[in-house]
Amino acid sequence: MAGYYGDRWSGCKGVGVRADAVRNREAILRATEELLEAHGAEHVSLDRVAAAAGVGKGTVFRRFGSRTGLFQELLAERAAALGKAVQAAGSPLGPGAPPLDRLLAFVDELAELAERNLALFAAHERACAEDKYRDPTYLRWHAHVSALIAEARPGMDAGFAAHALLGSFDADLARHVMADGGVARLKSSVRGLVRALLT
Amino acid sequence: MAGYYGDRWSGCKGVGVRADAVRNREAILRATEELLEAHGAEHVSLDRVAAAAGVGKGTVFRRFGSRTGLFQELLAERAAALGKAVQAAGSPLGPGAPPLDRLLAFVDELAELAERNLALFAAHERACAEDKYRDPTYLRWHAHVSALIAEARPGMDAGFAAHALLGSFDADLARHVMADGGVARLKSSVRGLVRALLT
DNA sequence: ATAAAACCGGACCGATGGTCCGTATGATGG
DNA sequence: CCATCATACGGACCATCGGTCCGGTTTTAT
Which residues on chain A are in Cβ contact (under 8 Å) with B153? Predict the structure, then answer.
């Protein structure tokens, strides 16, 4: 996520930025991950996060603004690699490949991201319940998917279809589907959707 | 929603059921509607509902079990008519018509239901955030959509596609779409999806 | 009329997200 | 190395919320 928010926080120090601030920021992020993994999305309160990070609650809010902000940044961090892959030419993901292939590759990656970060996805969803369409990561994904759909099927309401397609990665739906068939099932189901949409 | 839950509450008195209980139940339901309409989903706490209904908080919980239960019943009530229409022959909605037509008609109805009950949809979603796949009304819709998809496209993961399609009526998405184009836009976008899926 | 069952209301509870401010700390210039 | 001051820290504090509980009341049945 480095740089997505344009602030001075990106894991690296800058001029006038205190070392403890950087350290704490990282500690909070890591503690959140661990709690998420260990106890599931519903049991990660900011009090717990602060305690686990060895930090006061105030610090969590100063760094991330709100529960929402925390999970948004965590997701951005986890999604950074995918973001770059999408812009790099050479793979089916990147520019140059035909839209259908790009979209198929993209949803495959998303499925794997969802599998590896189910708890985070769930927490992020709850946290962004209000204006979920303002989350930077979601917006990037939506812009990308939307553009591919528009390219492949000019007639269709691409923006809408993109939202619907991304809805496939709703944490609860993903869990529900993966519970019976794992990522493979999720991937193949979503690919089915994509094919039906773009063919 | 009369009868969906098999309990003695259906708006009508029964043997041994106190008149005040029936009255209060109705008062709570109506108060919830009004608050929803007036202040939006986020500002309807159960304290407010109780106050607006002229009833103690305990009564709300005794009647509906939880916040979730309250909104589930309210939605069930609002969706009852559609449920019956789907089972009655003679319209494009009911049995007899070809699956594509039935599905198109169904999503049209859903779109209108969503328009008329946006706040309720939103509240219901938040309230059912955990196990949203256990809500009776959603389950009925899913079973119906799923069956139609399976009938029209045997190869596809119908259950999954049905979830994805019903995702179109997510309150936030619906509001977002209707903000620019009204129900008409929502309807036509969803119809586009349906056609792409089943054709 | 009376007793029992059903129901009522609202005080009460624990948890949560978020705020505030006196205090500690780390960066910086001399 | 030290003084200074912006910056960050922490945790007490707050309002709100969903949910529980129980003493008191109302309704029904006998």
Answer: 196
Largest CA distance in chain B: 54
* Separation of alpha carbons B143 and A95, rounded Å: 39
- Has this prediction a pTM greater than 0.85? yes
Residue A26 (CA) to nucleotide C30 (C1'), in angstroms, measures 34
Conformational region of residue B96, where left means phi above 0, alpha means psi within -120 to 50, and beta covers everything else: left
Report chain D positions within 7 A of protein CB atoms: 7-13, 16-22, 26-29
| Bridge partners, A118 (sequence order) | none
Q: Are B197 and B161 in contact (CB under 8 A)?
A: yes
* Domains recognised in chain A with CATH numbers: 67-198 (1.10.357.10)
- Rounded CA gap, A20 and A6, in Å? 20
Angle, helices A171-178/A182-198, rounded to nearest 10 degrees: 120
By the 8 A CB rule, do B1 and B80 touch? yes
Give pLDDT tens digits for A104-150: 999 999 999 999 999 999 999 999 998 889 999 999 999 999 999 99
- Between residue 5 and residue 24 of chain B, the positions with Cβ below 7 Å from nucleic chain D are 15-16, 18-20
